[in-house]
From TrEMBL:
Residues 215-365 form the Glycosyl transferase family domain. The keyword Ribosomal protein does not apply. PANTHER family: COLANIC ACID BIOSYNTHESIS GLYCOSYLTRANSFERASE WCAL-RELATED, GLYCOSYLTRANSFERASE. This is Glycosyl transferase family 1 domain-containing protein. Belongs to the glycosyltransferase group 1 family. Glycosyltransferase 4 subfamily. Coiled coil: none annotated. Keywords: Glycosyltransferase, Transferase. GO terms for molecular function: glycosyltransferase activity. InterPro entries: Glyco_trans_1. Signal peptide: none annotated. It comes from Insulibacter thermoxylanivorax. The keyword Transferase applies.
Amino acid sequence: MTARTLMLFSHICNPNHMTGAEKLLHFMLRELVPYHRTLLVVPNEGMLAARARSLGVEVIVHPYPLLWEMWNPGPSFVEQLQHFRQPQQLSALMNLIHMHRPDIVGVNTCVNPLPAMAASQLGIPVMWTITEMMQDGPYSPHATQLIASCARWIVGISETALAPFRRDGFAAQTMLLPPSWHPDQLRPDTWPTQRHKMRLTYGIGRQELCAGYVVSDIALHKGFDHFVEMAVRLCHTHPHIQYMIVGNPTEQAYYDHAVAYIHSSGFASRFKMIPFHTSIEAIYPALDLLVVPSMVPEGFGMTAMEGMIFGKPVIAYRSGGLEEMLTNVGKSQWLVPRGDIDSLTALAAELLRDRRACLAMGEEVQRAIQEVYGIETYRRRLKQLLSAIEPSAAALVQHHAHVRAVFSDGMLVKGVHTPAVFLLQGGSKRPLASEGAFHGHGFSWRDVQILDETLLQAWPTGMPIY
């Protein structure tokens, strides 16, 4: 495998936790680092940046806007898109890419179009990872068309995430790369101790069962109120069940209303409210059942996968990738129609009838998730993706060699839309560090040749000239 330079752009970089999309990107970085030079670009400092550095990844902080309407385009989408296409919007990112000259640019999530647009204008192959289920509507084809026009490869974490692109005629560009995990990172040898510690801390008895709800951000679309309603109903008939809620409220009024309902029910002592943990091995071992009542179609359902990795039965609403994943591991019977609290309650009661049966079901699904989504499966798919990318990367290298042969050392060049001025020297382009350096070396603007932005990519970036 030829070593390449990959420049990956994260849509966000949260300070205190990582979203599912950030976790997926971090996971890919860890797999790429041994074989390729890998750069991570983030809009600000945060947990993802820190963890990437610990892997040896070069991290670049460079702010860029997101286009949130990509997920569910409305009437103003085309106008917003035209604004994003303006050279002044793309100039700073194109300049950044010029400096690092990657062979491949990767972006994550559908709402992160600017880096992909900049890279495609520079002629650099783009792989665009779709981690969510884009909404269907009259303006949706504008979003899928944009992604397909910028990306050589549209990488989906599920068939559900890829469905809009296949529907709109871009199936040939799609590739499937579902999430996975590194077993050693979850420290399975500590799980019994973690279970005992967490349950002791929150007063959950050895013979009691615990149903859990785990999210990083508690919000309406994650169905928190549905879990609460299910749990309160079960409290009336199942005194041996406790309930653990893990997450940080992001919609305070919604959260407060649900918590008030818990207190008014008379069963508040059976609800354990815990802030979100970044160390998931401290949470899942304490549970006997995980409930994922997502109210929107999920691109995949990382929480559900995590529950099964830890050997927990998982019940969920039929919400996009959640349905796909549970069906793939042979557990479609653990799905209920979205929003059907009656069926959710009945299914939870059925699975929590007996602790031994619950444990056996968890062990069974743990084996199934390993078989379908384990690390070896991920590595095989990633290798297929990189093999598909390689011909484009090799062709670009060859094209750049032809371009360099046309231009002479000593020329001053800059791009049409980007600000940096370079001196071609020794097979590289050396950036002038400042206007003072430009004039200090006796250069004149009359000597600067304006090149198409794609041509500047032909030279590796050399040492700055001060």
